[in-house]
Amino acid sequence: MRSYVSHLECAYSGERFDRGIVHTISTIGKPIVVKYDLERLSKEITRSSIENSRKPGFWRYSPLLPVTSEENMVSLGEVITPLIRLENLSTILGFEAESVFIKDESRLPTGSFKARGLGMAVSMAKELGIRHLSIPTNGNAGSALAAYASRAGIRCTVLCPDNTPEINIRETQIQGASTHIVNGLIGECGSIISDGMEEIGWFAVSTLKEPYRIEGKKTMGLELAEQMDWNLPDVIFYPTGGGTGIIGMWKCFHELKELGWIDCKLPKMISVQSTGCAPIVKAWEEGSEFAEFWENAETISSGIRVPSALGDFLILDAVRSSGGLAMAVSDEETLEIQEQVGKTEGLLLCPEGAAVVAAYRECIKTGSVSTNDSVVLFNTATGLKYPMPEVVSTIDKNNVDYSIFSK
Ligand SMILES: *Cc1c(COP(=O)(O)O)cnc(C)c1O
What we know:
single chain, alpha/beta, 14 helices, binds pyridoxal-5'-phosphate
């Protein structure tokens, strides 16, 4: 297989880097992104060759991905995640709208979209000969890294803050990572990893501290375009933590435009955070280029409990140049919507996914989005990994009171 990667560059300064060697962050400490020879790609690859690909899930986009050799594409049976139309919006949200879809990322290996980014990072680690990976996580990243690293035969160490959901810690361990609980925040776990790099020789796959998780996450945008017949929705709502997904989608929309594979208006990108941790929202409201550290971050949506994002300026750029916005919703609204969507649509959203549905409702109220807009809401993980309301009703098998069933 041929690679179309031309080089890599600092997403802030444009500093150039060669392909084929290990990279972390740029000289000025900003994320490095992958650049492709799109002119050559457009001559040699067609949309229909992608449509006819028999590779699993996101690997069908391999010409637009950084892995050069087929044997390095580590796969756990990825799928194209479905777009599910919300059919009972008037019950859930109190109004009708024709074209509102959930892109359900819970169907991916390890039950979250982290499989995309970490599947790519592990595959590139394999290609570049890295033998030991390490990650700080307070949620789904650890298990996705563990699963793909185990599959690839690469060692994996995961550090979790002690408020990480128990299920995420345990699933990570059983999928082969050496897993450790740290009495500190995610940033402090990250520091332990950077400080240990030289002594242990592991490679850190922290968000945006290596170039390839963005490439994996951009496949959400590629998939969406193909599923919509090479069109895009008017608006995308995305639960934003480190921002890899929003940055990746925005990157690939431009790549698709340059390739001439899409010709539509680009979607408004709406970045959704929690009122308990909303650094991007604050920066967006203040018109700042970068976001400040968010003190005492707290929300049930652990995937978006990220007080400081290395790619803040890229998230803010995607939001601003798309004509979108950044907004925060409370945990109460999130839980209310999660229950409503479960009861009326039969979909068990994760809190992060429920938060974007709540944000959509708010945008309709304020008029920033119209009920005529086509909308895609990202459900980024399975709700099964999170606490659920307890069942309290009990039945005595020797004395069944049938009246309770008609209530
Ligand atoms: C990691 C995570 C997010 C945030 O993703 P980013 O692309 O890093 O902003 C959202 N939801 C869930 C469930 C996650 O695990």
